[in-house]
Write a structure and sequence with these properties.
Bound molecules: nicotinamide-adenine-dinucleotide, uridine-5'-diphosphate
CATH architecture: 3-Layer(aba) Sandwich
InterPro entries: NAD(P)-bd_dom, NAD(P)-bd_dom_sf, UXS-like
Radius of gyration: 19 Å
Structural class: alpha/beta
Main location: cytoplasm
Shape: globular
Strand content: 15-25%
Order of helices and strands: EHEHEEHHEHEEHEEEHEEHEHH
Number of domains: 1
Largest sheet: 7 strands, parallel
CATH class: Alpha Beta
Family: Belongs to the NAD(P)-dependent epimerase/dehydratase family. UDP-glucuronic acid decarboxylase subfamily.
Helix content: 40-55%
Low-confidence stretches: none
GO molecular function: NAD+ binding; UDP-glucuronate decarboxylase activity
Organism: Roseivivax isoporae LMG 25204
């Protein structure tokens, strides 16, 4: 018999959250999506609003939430540097107070709880690629700290609630993920470059474009989320989820130019402060403990993402035409 649960997804109308809600609904669960729409879009879950097992609640996770659920996925938090630096105090509150409230809820309802942590806990890493045992190299007082330190404090809270209160926790350290439904204007590199290439505008490389990132397609990541949540209770946490394929930002720009057939030229802009110089997940743990690894190569994922952005931009242009 199908084990159907009442599942809370915070940040459920964001990029990753909307795919997660779909995946959980597909498996027969009841989904309560909680979001304050700070960076998420109603558009991401519009197709789910009429679903009989889907509910949407506008709510800020910094405020306590009293609902009856069996499982919690805590994704609420702006994820792009442009967004999380717009209101850094709110970013810290969301990570820290949001974690406390969701952990309090998990404790009371005896729910298993998942935390969307991040590769940013490794900061500008001195160990490469990054295994889960690496403690990181994070500036505690810089412009990225609201996100990095907020997420690090949330990790601490999760482990303290586990040790002190017996809460059943799951934790993914997510590396850069991309795909359809990313906000086209959130300033992240994949969305920026695709929009710039499709519009024939210059592609903005920050610094020399020699810094590296590893890009995971959203479908692979959500499969990893589900495997991680379903893992046995004694599975060691956290677990890195990401695609180990590593590219310089310049290489990414060249691939996107080629795939879009764009003639966009590259322009150089200052490198933001504390921008990590390299990033690649060591996914040994995910492979061994979850049997998970990504399947979708960068070019294939980019082709799907470009198609999506092309539609979004075409629709926007059509609605702007009088
Ligand atoms: P997103 O901005 O699209 O989604 C975040 C969602 O959280 C949005 O819908 C936003 O409105 C909501 N939110 C923000 N503050 C809130 C609050 N106080 N109360 C309620 N809702 C709130 O970003 P995403 O890429 O979908 O990221 C989801 C999660 O995954 C975040 O926690 C992020 O830190 C983490 N993560 C994402 C990536 C990535 O590459 N996408 C990488 C590492 C970690
Ligand atoms: N909390 C919540 N929903 C619940 C239970 C708790 O939002 O169903 C909040 C609660 O208001 C508190 C936080 O979670 O701010 C932490 O709860 P906990 O029980 O750990 O701490 P306490 O209430 O004892 O401070
Ligand atoms: N970046 C860039 N041009 C852009 C946007 C980002 O060169 O228009 C760079 C940015 O400096 C960083 C990398 O791309 O080195 C990834 O940036 P993103 O904001 O997507 O994610 P994060 O820095 O959080 O990994």
């Amino acid at each position: 018999m199908l084990d159907t649960k009442r599942i809370l997804v915070t940040g459920g109308s964001g990029f990753l959250g909307s795919f997660l809600c779909e995946s959980l609904l597909d498996d027969g669960h009841d989904v309560l999506c909680v979001d304050n729409f700070q960076t998420g879009a109603r558009e991401n879950v519009r197709h789910l609003l009429d679903h009989p097992r889907f509910e949407m609640l506008r709510h800020d996770v910094t405020v306590p939430l009293w609902v009856e659920v069996d499982e919690i996925w805590n994704l609420a938090c702006p994820a792009s540097p442009v967004h999380y630096q717009t209101d850094p105090v709110q970013t810290v509150k969301t990570s820290v107070m949001g974690a406390i409230n969701m952990l309090g809820l998990a404790k009371r309802t005896k729910s298993k709880i998942f935390q969307a942590s991040t590769s940013e806990v490794y900061g500008d890493p001195r160990v490469h690629p990054q295994p889960e045992g690496y403690w990181g190299n994070v500036n505690p007082i810089g412009p990225r700290s609201c996100y990095d330190e907020g997420k690090r404090c949330a990790e601490t809270l999760f482990f303290d609630y586990q040790r002190q209160c017996g809460v059943n926790i799951r934790m993914a350290r997510i590396f850069n993920t991309y795909g359809p439904r990313m906000n086209p204007y959130d300033g992240r590199v994949v969305s920026n470059f695709i929009v710039q290439a499709l519009k024939g505008e210059p592609i903005t490389l920050y610094g020399e474009g020699q810094q590296t990132r590893s890009f995971c397609y959203v479908e692979d990541l959500i499969r990893g989320f589900r495997a991680l949540m379903d893992a046995p209770d004694d599975t060691p946490m956290p677990i890195n989820l990401g695609n180990p394929g590593e590219f310089t930002i310049r290489e990414l720009a060249e691939i996107i130019n080629e795939l879009t057939g764009s003639q966009s030229r590259m322009v150089y802009r200052p490198l933001p402060q504390d921008d990590p110089t390299q990033r690649r997940p060591d996914i040994t743990r995910a492979k061994e403990l979850l049997g998970w690894e990504p399947k979708i190569a960068l070019r294939e994922g980019l082709i799907r993402t470009i198609e999506h952005f092309d539609e979004v931009l075409t629709r926007a242009a059509a609605s702007a035409t009088p």
